[in-house]
Amino acid sequence: MGFLYRKLIRQLLFRFNPELMHDLAIKSAKAAQKLPPAGMAARLLTKAKDLPLTVAGIKFRNPIGLAAGFDKNCEAARFLSQLGFGFLELGTVTFRPQPGNPKPRVFRLREQGAIINRMGFNNAGAWEAARSLERLLPLPIPVGISIGKNADCSIEDAPKNYLEALRVMYPYGDYFAVNISSPNTLQLRSLHGGDKLRRLVEPMLDHAAGQKQRRPFFVKIAPDLEERDLEAATSLAAELGFGLIATNTTVSRQAVPARWQSYEGGLSGRPLREISNAMLARTAELSGGRIPIMGSGGVMDGETALEKLRLGADLVQVYSGLIYGGPFLVKEILDYLARHNWQPRRH
Ligand SMILES: Cc1cc2nc3c(=O)[nH]c(=O)nc-3n(C[C@H](O)[C@H](O)[C@H](O)COP(=O)(O)O)c2cc1C
Fold first, then answer.
1. What percent of the chain has pLDDT over 90?
2. Which atom of ligand 1 is nearest to the CA of 220?
């Protein structure tokens, strides 16, 4: 099936504008989730051996998840939950709706198996995402919700803005991802600094502590971090008890031909793999098993997924791999992990 996608369907889809194709995919998934036979067919076609594990107190049926940014408005989660994933990370959701950056803002680098995007957190806002999830939950797999900052909110006011979004979304997530690493929101990445990160995350953790169910948090970090910021983030994570997602997209263009230098935005897919893996390995080394870690960046097949798990990721996320490999990629990865006798790490 994956072969069919790569040889035929992808050729067709790649003739059209990437964002248009993405919107079409979300619309189709929304339509399909209203038709029980479509969901049943998807489940049958993507069925793989369960590879159960528990991370941050959450039970997963396998370690492969959908990365944030695919279902920004949390509207296609039911259909997406039937494609074999162990979990979905929905969003990034901001408190208020916002249009994002001017189009075009997504570019395919076909020969590199990569994407450059500068979407800028286009989304319908937290209340709309909550309304969607109200209709779609419960789902058969855990759901993480990624929270980001509104573009018109200053960095000083970021903690309040994130907290407002969290308050709305809290009833709907099994975990929360604090996105401070998109390169497409001005100064967002400055939130990595030790003290700023503490001021951002502490109120969110306090909110969670005051609720009936205390949900776990992950901070999603950039692959372009300075060592001292990574050290600060890792030790804060161990102190306050949150996990890390390594990594978001890169602003580096080192691994792609010169003609892509002038395209602003975050690079994902195959050329991100090495940079992201270096950051993942260093995060795992610094944390010494004290915090849960998710790996994201350049997972295109079973081998690149297993590589991240071996480098220290407890869970792995995919985005660009799905665009290039198609909806059967998750099953292909899970079959590969089963064949290689992958076993979850014990914490
Ligand atoms: C079009 C596009 C939109 C994205 N939007 C988000 C987002 O809203 N929030 C986020 O945390 N990451 C976002 N990402 C980053 C992905 O979640 C992922 O971390 C990154 O693409 C690296 O993984 P990959 O190489 O498997 O694509 C986006 C990526 C792409 C390609």
1. 91
2. 11
The residue to which tokens 């205390």 are assigned:
214
Q: Residue 236: how many CB atoms within 10 A of its CB?
A: 20
Phi, psi of 222 (to 5 degrees): -85, 155
Cα(2)–Cα(10) distance, rounded to whole angstroms? 10
Place of tokens 């590969």: 336
Cα–Cα distance, 275 to 292 (Å, whole number): 20
Tally of CA atoms within 13 A in the half-sphere of 334 that contains its CB: 21
Other Cβ atoms less than 10 A from the Cβ of 110: the count is 11
- Count Cβ atoms within 10 A of the Cβ of residue 288 and give its class: 0-12 exposed, 13-18 middle, 19 or more buried: exposed
- What type of residue sits at position 92? T
Short-list 160, 25, 26, CA closest to 95: 160
Q: How confident is the model at residue 347 (pLDDT cuts 50, 70, 90)?
A: low
**How close is the Cα of 69 to the center of ligand 1, in Å?**
5
Q: Where are the domains of the chain?
A: 2-339
- Nearest-CA residue for ligand 1 atom 5 is 69
Measured distance CA(115)–CA(269) in Å, rounded = 6
Q: Please give the DSSP secondary-structure letter assigned to residue 123.
A: B
Instruction: Report percent pLDDT > 70 for the chain.
Output: 99
Distance CA 208, CA 242 (A): 12
At 188-206, the pLDDT tens digits run 898 898 799 999 999 999 9
Architecture of 2-339 per CATH? Answer: Alpha-Beta Barrel (3.20)
CA-closest residue to ligand 1 atom 24: 297
